[in-house]
Amino acid sequence: MPDTSPLAVCVGEGLVSLVPATAAPLEDNRTFHRSLAGAEWNAAIALASAGIRSAVVSRVGDDGFGRFLTGELRRLDVDATAVEIDPHAPTGLYVKELTAAVDGSIDATMHYYRAGSAAAGLSPDTLATPAAAALLAEAALVHTSGITPSLSASARAAQDALFAADGRDRMLSFDVNWRAVLWLGREEEGRRVLTEYAHRADVVFCTRHDAEAVFGTDDPDAVRALVPEPRFLLVTDPLGAVAFDGTERLQSDALDVPVVETIGAGDAFAAGFLAGVLTGLSLEGSLARAHRIATRALTSTRDHID
Q1: Which of these, 36, 103, 180, 229, has the minimum number of CB atoms within 10 Å of its CB?
Q2: Model confidence over 89-123: pLDDT tens digits?
Q3: From 3.30.70.270, 3.90.1570.10, 2.40.10.340, 3.40.1190.20, which CATH number describes the 7-298 domain?
């Protein structure tokens, strides 16, 4: 029998991450471990790990890195049928540079090599392919982020199409994910674009840092006053989160676990919360699930949970 459980579709960029074997300057590292990265792809994998049917709509190059990424999705039970293969543009990647902190955790700096990548070619045509259209028609939830519209004009048009879909019978989830370097020289445009998406989403995630950068305040209640439309709004920091469901407000602390590295934890947190919502948990239950899944990303230098 076909699986009729809720489907979550994540739309956005997939990347290969090269993680050095040791915390040292790149020039001193000879060995790198290959991994999957990309905010929406990380979220799709975390959703699948939480028992939610998930799929990715994206583009990769017709190269070894692209085949690796789609293979990883399939290995981790994420539907990859709507990942287009670009015969000309390469798969994007980034290299992590790790530095050991005094508290035993690891700080990471990312060096991106994504200009002209296949994912930058995301467009409304990507969403209209038979595979993508079928998934989006079935989706109970579509999740995307503020990274996508910064990649190219066509990628922004694709995200505009997601938010403009008439009569959509699904939740639309948006992670602000402000990346200043991707909006360099057009920061005000970026703030305006991401704010518009936030007003039109059903679920919005943002860190306090991103809230300050985009909305001009890191106070959760002030953010809620500025963005009242989404049913769910979550403002996070390393110590915990403030979550809103309509007028209900809940504050919770992050779980106390040894932190190895924080990259990807926000994507896992978002996935955990969305998994809770899709399975009918309360605000408190969904928030608790978000924290539990985020801890799995905090204990690894990978961007996604396995």
Answers
A1: 103
A2: 999 999 988 888 777 777 888 889 998 999 999 99
A3: 3.40.1190.20
Three-state secondary structure string covering 122-180:
CCHHHHHCHHHHHHHHHCCEEEEECCHHHHCHHHHHHHHHHHHCCCCCCEEEEECCCCH
What is the predicted pLDDT for the residue at 45? 95
| Residue for token pair 């997939």 | 14
Alpha-carbon torsion, ordered 96, 43, 292, 195, to 10 deg: 90
| Domain boundaries defined on the chain | 7-298
Closest to 56 in 3D by CA, of 120, 117, 12: 12
Catalytic (active-site) positions: 267
CB atoms within 10 A of CB 260: 15
**DSSP assignment, residue 227?**
-
How far is residue 222's CA from residue 168's CA, in Å, rounded to a whole number?
Answer: 29
Contact in structure between 285 and 276 (CB atoms under 8 Å) = yes
User: Residue 217's beta-bridge partner residues?
Assistant: none
Judge whether 82 and 12 are in contact, CB under 8 Å. no
Q: Give the sheet arrangement for strand 106-113, strand by strand.
A: 32-37, 15-20, 93-100, 106-113
